[in-house]
């Protein structure tokens, strides 16, 4: 396998930032989109599931292509395509058309994060990887910190269509910059790396470690990234009567906690160990969800969001680091499988929790997610997602 191109970690983090904003930009816009198309917010939530369904499903192909075509090359092309399709969402004339646009956007963007993380796995030794992943995490953190407020603010002043145009153009521009820096390697022939097509996925399925890891990722996606987190802005808007911009700002405080974690990741792993960090993060997230479910004032949710940012990456960061070692000789395949598990779980979670919200309200949905995280945390303790020593 040829040596991976050398690209500054902060450019890789910026690519993750662009991808993260494009993924989450719809969350604070759901009530606005629902009002424009004359539907309920719970119906507009299908936009989240549509994106995540194709995002997760695309991993079957992107992992195999990334190991042979080049991880950074594939990420650059995906960024450009994701941006262009997002811009085209501006022309949607109804909810169904926008759903199709988000499905295509999910398909186009599926390779970005897995390929960037696989590239880090290829170029950074494992004992340094948590720290470098923490730097990469800054892109996702800043997307959490700025994406919600920016999306809500642009939406309030220029409509939700203006948000699609702005974020789409930004994402496409990052893809073009990465292509330019890769230079001639963008035109190089496909390599011969990887575990031999779908044999890589077969190897993952045969590994008890990999199966546990993928199940943990799916539960993570279903309970948090699809189940609870996307609906907090709508909860703040509808139950506490906040504007989309203020709701996005409160949810963005999640990024403050995540930023604290990214600065402490190396010390935390060294002091607590990955298994203890995983359990602590899971139980802490459950407590934050219970607090959100019972919150009498939006200020309580603000505090819970900051804590959730720290705890989520304590939990999810360990899973990501382990994912880079699930199939070391074909990391694009292993990280694609990880992302597919995560986002298929997220799609299912979005659909299930939208139904729970429609029948029982936001608070019941958040409490249900909290109960689920308690179970996941104890399961991770009993069946740790790590290789035997």
Q: Can you offer a commentary on this structure?
A:
It is a single chain. The chain has one domain: Growth Hormone, Chain: A, CATH 1.20.1250. The two termini are 28 Å apart. It has helices spanning 9-24, 30-37, 41-44, 46-57, 59-69, 71-88, 95-109, 112-123, 126-182, 199-206, 208-228, 232-240, 244-252, 254-272, 274-294, 298-323, 331-360, 362-382. It has 389 residues and is mainly α. Helix 1 (9-24) packs across helix 9, helix 11 runs parallel beside helix 17 (331-360) and helix 14 runs antiparallel to helix 15 (274-294).
Please write out the topology.
Blueprint: H1 9-24, H2 30-37, H3 41-44, H4 46-57, H5 59-69, H6 71-88, H7 95-109, H8 112-123, H9 126-182, H10 199-206, H11 208-228, H12 232-240, H13 244-252, H14 254-272, H15 274-294, H16 298-323, H17 331-360, H18 362-382
